[in-house]
Amino acid sequence: MPEGEFRTEAGLVVERCYGPEHSGPDAFARIGEPGEFPFTRGNHPGGYRDRLWTFRQYSGFGTPEWSNERYKLLLEQGGTGLSVAADLPTQIGYDSDDPDVEEEVGRVGVALDSLADAEILFRGIPLDRISTSWTVNGTAAIMLAFYVAVGAKQGVPRAKLRGTIQNDILKEYVARGTWIWPPSPSIRLIADTIEFCAEEVPRYNAVSVAGAHFRDAGANAAQEMAFTLQDAVTYCDEIVGRGRMTIDQFAPQVSFFFYTHNDFFEEVAKYRAGRRRWAHIVRERYGAEKPSSSMFRFGVVCGGWTLQARQPHNNIVRVAYQAMAAVLGGVQSMFTAAWDEPFALPTEASTTLALRTQQILAHETGVTRTVDPLGGSYFVEALTDEMEEKVVGIMADLEARGGMVRCIEDGYVQRLIADESAAVQRRIDSGERVVVGVNRYETDEPVPALEPPVMDDAARKLQLDRLAEVRRTRNTRAALDALAGLRAAARGDANLMPPLVRCVEEYCTVGEITSELKDVWGEYQQPTVF
Amino acid sequence: MTELPVRVLVAKPGLDGHDRGAKLVARALRDAGFEVIYTGIRQKPEVIASIALQEDVDLVGLSILSGAHLGLTRKTVEALRAAGAGDVKVVVGGTVPQSDVQALLDMGACAVFPTGTPIESLVAEVRRITGAGAPSTN
Prior knowledge:
The complex is a heterodimer of chains A (530) and B (138). With 530 residues, chain A is an alpha/beta fold. Chain A is built from 21 helices and 11 strands. The longest helix of chain A has 23 residues, at 264-286. With 138 residues, chain B is an alpha/beta fold. Chain B has a single domain, classed as 3-Layer(aba) Sandwich (Rossmann fold). Chain B is 41% helix and 18% strand. Chain B has helices at 20-31, 45-54, 69-82, 98-106, 119-130, and strands at 7-11, 35-38, 59-64, 89-94, 111-114. The interface between A and B is large, with 43 and 36 residues.
């Protein structure tokens, strides 16, 4: 960058000092009041005075028994919502006994093969009082079916269930990679879950359009927000285009999810700009009339790529700053990663410390006392405007290139992210971008000795035995009938959720359900851009 | 200096889809003068072995962030041997705890690059293992 010029990590120009000359004549109208369109200053007039964000630590590993124990620990320690980490076989649609996936069972999350596992996962956790978020995409509809079925067994009606399924497949094709079927049927299934939730599970967020994984794969903050909103537009276009539902019937159940990285004010501006942009899109593109349709509700994760293996305790400080930026940006739900994330799954101690980071922020720093404390700051408002403009520009480019699905299928989005990631790496390698403990203030601090939880043979056997037991004891005829019903529905255009719930209730497994749909829809073929 | 460019396969075995690191390494090796092929994510060890054979690569770099590095590395090494490509060098990168490094070396990996490894030392190590000379400057 030219000498004397300062820019944020996404390339927004930052002036030496800001004053009234940086806000246009209509600044107040553009910003609005908290709780009012376009919601720049937040969705609710009372902000965190009325309700704190949800402390929601992403967690889950090994067997449902282990994870159930960890969830109870987190709730006892003051966690206020659950966030299920499922293992990769569960997310991609393989059963634990599939020989191709034996290494991955219970590894990065909990193994869930059938309703029997989901019942254990939520044993003793009242689903009418605790909300549950699922970072599951390819198989999100199956997880939703599990939740509805477990709720029914606990005697909790569907209308009382709260939580979120991530259910955002488009970003999986670009980053993270838990795709199963091609885009078209996958988007159809997402639209089906959104319709189903609107009608049957009205307090459940049917989709959490997630920019987080674009970001951690290398996208900058503006790209993260733009790609995410463009994905959301793709889903809304699909549902509105079906003609069965208006935007006001489902938009209140659309939510968002992002990574909060280190550039403090840029992160604040990203959330304020995103909130305002989404409000305009929902009203102007789709003609929404209900105010709640235009509200941008989002969760965040702090940590990820920004966390370093070298001098790893520095990560505690990074996460704390990131968490504060998210709160000043008006977050609804937060996961703060543990400092040992670069090495392995968190220990009990490190995950508790990560939760404490949020609790200190909420109860000791005083940032919750007033709504949108940075609102009206000459700098923050100018940066919010600049961020929004940049987001609008990126979205227009994607639309001009045929929309998000096209831009993903031809690898355009992947290329943009890989380019950005490589550019950032060059800036780190050259020392232009400082990473404390990595390219400045380096030491020879040894890697810490950790004892992370790992899936052992006994746990794997427990999981495999239960799966075998389910296959042996279920009503085989009813299970096969349910699968046949699902297949028939997949060939037509009826909503797939009712037949899916039936499959789950008959103890069909995640792998069986996924294969059934693969037979009808085929599998996605990835481009390999680097 | 070797006469032909050294060929490297960057591969992601198993179900892990986090490929920021794999792509960065692929670019860095390409920039350093290697011929690089990237498999994409979610490849079976036998498929990686067969690509390695077909593409006649000198080295396979596995990138695994899911914690499944022990089993997947062992399977890939075995698959390479079974395919008659046992001479192909294997290196492993990703979220690998220090306590697993020796086990990976014992099962046939030539080097391990845990998260946080500087990219230049990774490139230098790959150069050493493959006997590739310094890149020509042009």
